[in-house]
Amino acid sequence: MAQISWLIPNCEFDFVGLVDLKKNNLEFFLTKQGTIHSRLQRILDFKTARQYTIDNLIAPEYREFFDKEIRIPNMIEQMDRLGSFTFAFKVIDKEDQSSRLVRSYWLDDSREFIVILQSNVSNLFERELEEFREAQKSVNAAEKSNKIRAEFVSRITHDIRTPISLVNSMVDFAFEDIDNRQKLIEDLEKIRSTGKLLLALVNDVLDISKIESGKIVLQPTACDLNEVITDIRNIFESQCQQKNIEFKLNTEGKEFFESIIADRVRITQILMNLISNAVKYSLAEGRVEVSIIAKAASEETCAIRFIISDDGIGMIESFQEKMFTPFEQDYDNPLRDPKTVSTGLGLPIVKNLIDLMGGTIEVKSEFGHGTRFTIDLEFPIAKKIDAKTQSEASRVKNIQAALHGRKILFAEDNELN
Length: 417
Known about the structure:
- This protein is of the alpha+beta class.
- The chain is elongated, with a radius of gyration of 37 Å.
- Strand 4 (85-93) and strand 5 form a beta hairpin.
- The longest helix has 55 residues, at 122-176.
- The N and C termini lie far apart (88 Å).
- It contains 11 helices and 13 strands.
- A 6-stranded antiparallel β-sheet has the order 3-2-1-6-5-4, sandwiched between helices. A 5-stranded mixed β-sheet has the order 8-10-11-13-12, covered by helices on one side.
- The protein has helices at 2-5, 46-56, 60-69, 72-82, 122-176, 181-212, 225-242, 264-280, 317-320, 346-356, 387-403; strands spanning 13-20, 25-31, 43-45, 85-93, 96-106, 113-120, 221-223, 246-252, 260-262, 287-296, 301-310, 360-366, 370-380.
- Helix 5 packs antiparallel against helix 6.
């Protein structure tokens, strides 16, 4: 026993045995209580022990393989070549299958005895299997991401090429209409609108790239939320009129609007994305409603809730599960107009910006009945001075200080720039 103790690994085992090659028998030195080996005689003919194991322990799909591998000549050949013999298989354990590992070594240089150890390696196999599954998930996710990106590149290329072609055409029309002021103005307005669309597409692509690389940084300053509300009203009231959609904007707690510390650009971006989606996916004679409600959260902060709702086409359930994933779109929604232009980046950008601000977003949507977004954000309250004046004065002062006594050279290699 002392001779083989150094070969016994520090792990859970079913049995430790010694094969006497001259007598061709197997002697069990250690057996785990409750296993079939603990119920066998201590010394058995090796072939008898092997056959008993095949008939009573080995899982059916492994029996033929076990019978072929667990033979003395095969074990000796592998031990001489590799220093040890190893064989993994599954057994029937309480009606379930579990994994086992058989290893064998020469006891000493006499080559008359072989030490055999059978270990339970189910936990190890399960861990490796779980690691494999996780790795496979990562591979699948990466492949899916690459596929989505490839589709996005194809789609965005089309979305950008179309407006550029339109701009070129409208420029030609503008030259033709040079003597007709009214038509010329119409041509220029279309060019300007198309330019804004192109800029929005490019900005979305740049923003999602910054978000994914962690380079988006908030720039909170004292700001007046009333200015944001005015911009929203001016932009979307006219859009809704063109589509014959009712637009309603509600506000509460306006006393807080003039004195918050926030990144005005990013708040505007969040609201513009969500409201433009509401308008885009609403049908004629529909309704889009925006509510902005502010109240004190503490002596130094205020809580503002933004609610954007519509009674448009809504989202199908499968899309709602992935709506914040970049490049995903609700293409399977039968009510969606196939001509709708979208990058699939608006909602992911919104979600990431809200997370960056420490806020929450809740979405309720029903196919064919509309969507409701509820955003909760908390902002510090600015000191009781005119927020707009403070922000503008500070900005001008900083610029003046930075430029004082300096000369600036602008150089371009592009005549248009």
